[in-house]
Structures
1.
Amino acid sequence: MFQYAGYSLLATHYSLLKIMNYEAVIGLEVHVQVKTASKIFTRVGQGYGHEENTLTDPVVLALPGALPVMNKAALDAIIKSGLMLHCEIADVCKWDRKNYFYPDSPKNYQITQFDQPICIGGEVEIELPGEARNVMGEHKKIPLTRIHQEEDVGKLTHFAHDSLVDYNRAGTPLMEIVSDPAIASAEEAYAFLTTLRTTMVYAGISDCDMEKGQMRCDANISIRPVGQEELGVKVELKNLNSISYVRDGISHEIKRQKAVLKAGGTIVQETRDFDGITGTSQSLRTKEDAHDYRYFPDPDLMPVRVDQAWKDRLAAECPERPFDKQRRFMAAYDLPYTITSVLVPDRELSDWFEATVAIAGKPQAQAVGNWIANDLLRDLGAANVSLADAKITPAHLAELVGLIEAGTITKQIAREVFTESFGSGETPSAVVERKGLKDDTNSDELEQWCRDAIAGNDKAHEQFLGGKDGAINAMKGPVMKASRGKANPKLVDETLRRLLAE
């Protein structure tokens, strides 16, 4: 088992399992809708929020004589996903029919991949909680079994006496990402899904909005005595409608299984439904035998050969992986973990940061990171504006940081300038000029303000002369007030120290 440090919730949870002499073994099956213009085997469009049963055609509805045609963009997306997750991309994959009868599948079978998936193996890197959230936690790599591609099914809505089916979702390109049974806790599962979602969004493969059904997850959970290699009886948990519900559902199921065994009972292989609102689960069906889906190759779709040139082209389109970028930001720009944790999960935001640093210069990277993580995100949230629609640009922020560094304005004045630029799109230099915010203090004025501050604070004066260096800060306030916040803090400090030394 993986050892955790500190006194986090995760560590406490793990310790409880050890005390009970049981450990959890978890595997996840994650379905991710691929963002393409059309569905996987037909040119009809796909999307969310359309009127029911309007995104259909003869292929989606399985009308007689309608034949599927492969959407290459969907295949590109799953290969790119495999490359992002370190999978081996198969040289040849094929399509199979998974036969079952249910109203959400008009063909009465699903086109999927069975014994020859496109992506084999792979891994998802996760970060486990550290002792404090301002320190990078320990990382672990969760191995994947496979990623295969298939078509989504329709959506059933159940009422008291009726059920309605909407086929808008049917035929949407879908990936099933299957992990090995190598996840050890609910928190690890949460971290797995968080990394997976960030990676898919980074690569432009999916928006992974669980509320819209763009990412769905089933969890297979078992417990076993610590040290035992054989897996325990597996329970499948369904209807986990958010990443938080996945974490809560797994935690609930581990506790339930432990309680059953503690009471002398036996775990039954079954599928359970978890209610994220009440935090309870109930049995849906037992799974004494595996379903016989009678898989066989789809006769209407030919196997696909993926040559090296195809793989190389898609590899060149893959962005930097999120954790790789975070490590680079910390090493190359000397950014603290707290700032990288804000910048990196949002690809657009991290690109905005690097665009600003490219203009402002690498030595200003920390200042740029602080302005983005604090002021920019605060103002974006307050104005309910996206970064793409914001009037302020990387060039604006780079100019503002430069004005501070040159001593033209103080940090206090800079916040006022930032707010003006954010709202109007006016350059910081123009704001400073228009509002008369430039530090035009002459040396004689500054020296007199400093002498007055020293004379008016005998206690701080004596403390500083007695060796308490921080006492000088009590004398800086009156100087900044006299200058109406315009005086250069660096010059104020230098002048006070010179006068105090005299």
Note: The two ends are 66 Å apart (CA to CA).
2.
Amino acid sequence: QSKSYEELQELIVETIEATRSVSFNLAPSVLSDFGLVPAIKLLAETNMKIRQIPIEVNSEFNKRIAEKIEIGLYRIVQEGLHNAQKHSKAKKIEIQLFERNNEIILEISDNGIGFKNEINKANKKSINIGSGINNMKTRVGLLNGFFSMKSEINKGTSITVIVPI
């Protein structure tokens, strides 16, 4: 009985976190007011307080870009952080954002447990790839960008997104 009580408590905490996150992230004013990097830094700070996993944001990118690109990249970072914090058991997460050759490169990496992405040949679906990854891929596609993910058991996971600006 105490186990189910603990599970219920954890579910309540997760629900509260998700509700707060949704309400804040529907239209983060810091994104429209100050731009992508300050919004990502605030998102990282908020997530560190909730999950107690250090998140380092490295970027010298400081110009404004098209709103749809800012929103798309922000949502990708949200999903990447959520996945890393929920599944990776990482001790550290790093976000890098920089510009090169008229493209924005976003990298989200963790030092967590990683995973092996196996393809089930019978139905050609990826095992261990949830809807979060598919959501990120879809967002990148809508921005005419490139998405890649690398993961190794016990070495972590790294997501790279390249979007033209």
Note: The first strand starts at residue 55 and ends at 59.
